């Protein structure tokens, strides 16, 4: 191959060479300025793919870490209220023991009943407590309303000149039974609340219908829901079939046919308030006397038929009864049912506090594990994206030196004339 020997050709070659060197130097300077090895996608496509994947994973883990922090905060806030509730019930138990001892006169018990009334007010205040976010703690996921509705009445003042003002006579749950769950890792969710219809209930709830089940049969396929558990019913199912299907489901209840009334009975297996509904077009539980007619106009747990017998007791019921039995000097009730119910409430609260502590420990372990995972990912990402500064400076110096040498040599060559080539 024959090359032409002329300055224009040499100049073009010089321009191409110096442009490449300048581009290399510019890239090295840009990398040093930004501290990154990859500035543009074309710099390292494979490295970019790894970096994007790691960046997405790190973002997700940071969300999980934030969720864990929020969950721990909610649990600790709840724990504080449960500890306060435990202290209140401990004091109520002491009062019940004193009231049942027979050492106090009737007037003394009336005075003590005022303290129980104050304790009841404190329990209601805890039940309707709001978290740091301003939302109700014990109302399930119905967080924008008070967990419990309180009914007051001038009950004592009607029969006594020294009676107090309006007192609590009934406390009804106003929330729902749903748990607030937070994702703390890939598809791993943890509840961080305790619905009030669980925490403040101390006995299994038993719902007994007054309707005889003889001759009953489901007319068409339908579904009923107990504590949000779906239970499918088939046309032709008898009351016994319904009992069997309820008991085979995962709902925390036990169904049976009442031996006296021959009616449907549903009882919880753990103390809580039952949530019962059925499909809008269904009337199975209405016909069986469990739900009120046109039950879609009322929401659980207040959609039960008025003819049902509902047996359940809450912490509020126990304290209301203790207050009233002290005031009315009924020692036999103070030392039997009131004391036993308060003692049972304390046991259940301690179980809840222990469960809460176990959740906190699990969150702590999850936090440690995924924090280390995030640190490892960031370290891996450095290998793909961050710049080795020492190596980059060395490469920059070498490129700059090569550039200067190239310019120097080219300058000398450009001084050569045609006569120099034909000597």
Automatic annotation (TrEMBL):
Residue stretches in coiled coil: none
GO molecular function: structural molecule activity
Keyword Disulfide bond: no
Compartments (UniProt record): Periplasmic flagellum
Source domain of life: Bacteria
Transcription keyword on record: no
BP term (GO), one: bacterial-type flagellum-dependent cell motility
Pfam families: Flagellin_C (PF00700), Flagellin_IN (PF07196), Flagellin_N (PF00669)
Role, per record: Component of the core of the flagella.
Protein name stated in the entry: Flagellar hook-associated protein 3 FlgL
């Amino acid at each position: 191959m024959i090359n032409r020997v002329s300055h224009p050709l040499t100049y073009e070659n010089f321009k191409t060479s110096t442009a490449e060197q300048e581009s290399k130097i510019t890239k090295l300077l840009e990398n040093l300025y930004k501290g990154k090895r990859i500035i543009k996608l074309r710099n390292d496509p494979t490295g970019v793919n790894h970096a994007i994947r790691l960046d997405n994973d790190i973002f997700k883990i940071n969300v999980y870490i934030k969720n864990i922090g929020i969950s721990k905060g909610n649990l600790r806030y709840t724990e504080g209220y449960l500890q306060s509730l435990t202290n209140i019930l401990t004091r109520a138990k002491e009062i019940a023991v004193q009231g049942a001892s027979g050492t106090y006169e009737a007037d003394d018990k009336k005075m003590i009943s005022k303290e129980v009334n104050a304790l009841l007010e404190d329990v209601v205040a805890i039940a309707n407590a709001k978290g740091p976010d301003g939302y109700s703690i014990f109302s399930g996921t119905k967080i924008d309303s008070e967990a419990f509705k309180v009914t007051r009445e001038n009950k004592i003042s009607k029969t006594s000149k020294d009676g107090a003002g309006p007192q609590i006579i009934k406390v009804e749950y106003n929330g729902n039974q749903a748990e607030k769950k937070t994702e703390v890792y890939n598809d791993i969710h943890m509840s961080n609340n305790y619905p009030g219809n669980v925490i403040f209930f101390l006995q299994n709830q038993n719902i007994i219908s007054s309707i005889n089940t003889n001759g009953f049969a489901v007319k068409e396929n339908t579904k009923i829901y107990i504590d949000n558990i779906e239970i499918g019913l088939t046309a032709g199912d008898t009351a016994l079939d319904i009992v069997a299907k309820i008991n085979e489901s995962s709902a925390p209840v036990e169904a049976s046919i009442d031996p006296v009334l021959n009616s449907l009975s549903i009882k919880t297996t753990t103390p809580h308030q039952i949530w019962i509904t059925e499909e809008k077009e269904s009337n199975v539980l209405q016909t069986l006397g469990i739900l009120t007619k046109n039950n879609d106009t009322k929401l659980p747990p207040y959609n039960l038929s008025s003819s049902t017998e509902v047996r359940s007791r809450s912490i509020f019921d126990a304290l209301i009864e203790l207050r009233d039995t002290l005031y009315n000097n009924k020692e036999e009730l103070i030392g039997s049912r009131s004391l036993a119910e308060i003692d049972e409430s304390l046991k259940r609260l301690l179980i809840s506090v222990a469960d809460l502590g176990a959740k906190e420990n699990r969150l702590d372990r999850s936090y440690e594990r995924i924090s280390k995972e995030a640190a490892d990912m960031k370290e891996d990402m450095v290998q793909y994206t961050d710049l080795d500064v020492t190596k980059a400076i060395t490469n920059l110096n070498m490129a700059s030196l090569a550039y200067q040498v190239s310019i120097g040599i080219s300058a000398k060559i450009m001084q050569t004339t045609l006569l120099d080539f034909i000597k």
